[in-house]
Specification:
heterodimer, A: 115 residues, mainly beta, four-stranded antiparallel sheet, globular, B: mainly beta, six-stranded mixed sheet, 11 strands
Chain lengths: 115, 109
């Protein structure tokens, strides 16, 4: 079945530094990548949607200059959290779609802790 | 606005049956998903309903009524490993998933 590899699984960084999270679709081409953030005991919050080769569409309230998304190929999308602050500490999850209605494959998630 | 409602928490006994309800109001409808999420892990796909009726898959079944904007996930023969959060999500007219807040299911021996 479809697999999305997300790295790193967890990361601890100092406040003010940047962190890059990668998601790779291993056995299919992901036309669309969704990036979510999940705070403890809350549901998934969509941050942005990206299509290969075009700029990401950000949800209201998500700073595009802080959360940089690159979807350079059909198998790789990255999320860079720039100038991270403790309030950015969260669980970040990507989800890849091949473009069909029922096809959403999730990565394993990245636990980000900013100290 | 778009809204997905599901209970915050439910408790059930090992071996029993539990039904988790989900009601929705969205701009367009292209199917309803149920996902299971264990703490600290990404969601895993359980079911997808786009037509009215019941879809059965082993111990799990999912029901949909589009006219009522209602779905439920039925879990039978509960096992301790079923303790998790269950997320209801609806694909809207743009195929974007709208997520419920999740139902934390606690299984007791």
């Amino acid at each position: 079945g479809a697999v999305v590899s997300q790295h790193p699984s967890w990361v601890i960084c100092k406040s003010g530094t940047s962190v890059k999270i990668e998601c790779r679709s291993l056995d299919f081409q992901a036309t669309t990548m969704f990036w979510y953030r999940q705070f403890p005991k809350q549901s998934l919050m969509l941050m942005a949607t990206s299509n290969e080769g075009s700029k990401a569409t950000y949800e209201q309230g998500v700073e595009k200059d802080k959360f940089l998304i690159n979807h350079a190929s059909l198998t790789l999308s990255t999320l860079t959290v720039t100038s991270a602050h403790p309030e950015d500490s969260s669980f970040y999850i990507c989800s890849a779609s091949r473009g069909t209605a029922t096809d959403y494959t999730f990565g394993s998630g990245t636990r980000l802790t900013v100290v | 606005g778009q809204n997905i409602d599901q209970p915050t928490e439910m408790t059930a006994t090992e071996g029993a049956i539990v039904q988790i309800n989900c009601t929705y109001q969205t701009s367009g409808f292209n199917g309803l998903f149920w996902y299971q999420q264990h703490a600290g892990e990404a969601p895993t796909f359980l079911s997808y309903n786009v037509l009215d009726g019941l879809e059965e898959k082993g111990r799990f079944s999912s029901f949909l009524s589009r006219s009522k904007g209602y779905s439920y996930l039925l879990l039978k023969e509960l096992q301790m490993k079923d303790s998790a959060s269950y997320l209801c999500a609806v694909a809207d007219s743009n195929y974007q998933l709208i997520w419920g807040a999740g139902t934390k299911l606690i299984i007791k021996p």
